[in-house]
Amino acid sequence: MQYLLPSAVFLLMLSVGMSLEPTKVVANWRRLTWFTWLCLTIATFLIPPALALLLAHIFGLTLGATAGLFMVGATPGAPLLTRNMARRGFDMHMAASYQLWAALMVPVMIPLVVAAAGKIYGRDIWIPPAVLLKQIALKQFVPLSVGIVIAWLAPKLTQRSQPLLNTLGNILLTVMIAAALFKMEPALKGTTPLIPVSALLLAAGSVAAILPFRFTDPMVKQTFAICNANRHIGLALLLTGQYVHAQNGLPAVACYALLAPLMMFAYVRLWPARSGAARTASAN
After folding, report:
1. Nearest one of 36, 25, 136 to 79, comparing CA atoms
2. pLDDT digit string (tens) for 168-188?
3. Is domain 4-272 classified as CATH 1.20.1530.20?
4. Does the reported pTM lie above 0.90?
């Protein structure tokens, strides 16, 4: 099972890379103002982990469950965007631009956020930025770059294989989540139902964190909102076990891995109706 998650992430990032045009990604970075980047930093790296701690306090979660939920909130940028989202009007290139920016910010922001949270609980926790940079480089930048190169060298092959790789990556990810839940069944049976409730509220809060900020393009705003709920479960698992040393925090991470896609799916389903209503209102 330890190879399923890296394999799923590799295939998904390879698929994303094969569908990207680097010039569009860079253009997306340039079109956003410094104020927009500041808003994204707050909504991506500060609000979700703070919300996780607040939910844990409200529901009286154990320290281990709090650590697991917090690490999910602190780790953005998961490569789980699908072609179906692009078909529903979400900007795939803008989503990829956001994901790459979040990955570049991870070695800077996560050590600071985790260290600050540790002080609240009287603990000194420091995650070396080099460790995070290595994880991001190997599991995201390398397969993404390979996908971009393949798309450039063999565009016809890319058109045929990209949807297949995306589907296979999502299947592997689903199998991994199911296997993890099966393996953790005894631990999950002993957990309070407030943990999945907290995970679901964290996913909803991550979407809502983007919505108060102003963006010139509503589609960009909705794309960022769905991306923000897409937290990096694999990195959260790694950091929870190795640096926070909260093995009993895994159920909280697993619950988010299971419930966040449901929240994202519901948001994707509802967004066309809201955007259509907005277009009708503006036309009138």
Report:
1. 136
2. 777 777 777 677 667 666 666
3. yes
4. no
